[in-house]
Amino acid sequence: MFDIYTIIFLALAVFIFLxxxxxxxxxTGRERPPYDxxxxxxxxxxxxxxxxxxxxxxxxxxxxxxPAEDARSADRWKGIAQxxxxxxxxxxxxxxxxxxxxxxxxxxxxxxxxxxxxxxYADGDRxxxxxxxxxxxxxxxxxxxxxxxxxxxxxxxxxxSIDSTDIIGAELRGKIAQVTIRFVSQLVSVTRDKNGAVKDxxxxxxxxxxxxxxxxxxxxSRDPNWKLVATETGQ
Length: 235
Description:
The chain has one domain (10-233): Nuclear Transport Factor 2, Chain: A. Helix content is 34%, strand content 26%. It is of the alpha+beta class. The two termini are 28 Å apart. A hairpin with a 2-residue loop joins strand 1 and strand 2 (176-192). Strands 1, 2, 3, 4 and 5 form a five-stranded antiparallel β-sheet that branches. Helix 4 (103-123) runs antiparallel to helix 5 (126-132) and helix 5 packs antiparallel against helix 6.
């Protein structure tokens, strides 16, 4: 990945550059319709349902090295996942197939992608969304944007803060790596009708928002891009 996961998507760097100069697909079977990030929502507690990934089998020749390996594994995901948790095992599986995978850098890129996607959705920026979303997720977002445009509505959003970005799930499905992240943020968002009157949200109110997004990538591909493949809210 470009700059070792500092930015999840290679395309993300291009769009940031273009923006400054001018002023994360794989089907998972779990995709949900896109949410409207501009409606007021209350923060809810996570369910804590992690995905489980079996560890690669160990042969007899590996037995002697097991204590040392266990010691390294205990510290490997420090600050990211508890030792021997479902998340840690999932990260182990991904890292075994993708030697460049580094969760802390991945989280930094995911944070940047999250803000860009939410902002692009508000702005109706299809070009940005198309490069960051899996096809079916993009189709859902684009349908909502098209309906909004047909009604003559406009959306505005402003990030006040992103309070936390945590990996709550990780797994390797065949050669497809999936990482699920919980974002807790504060937004000011509003949707206006064609006359400029507020239809939804409040331009003067900060709203707590919790989003759970899943990014995926084929670890056998030379393409370093991760794309958003599923979204949930309030988990």
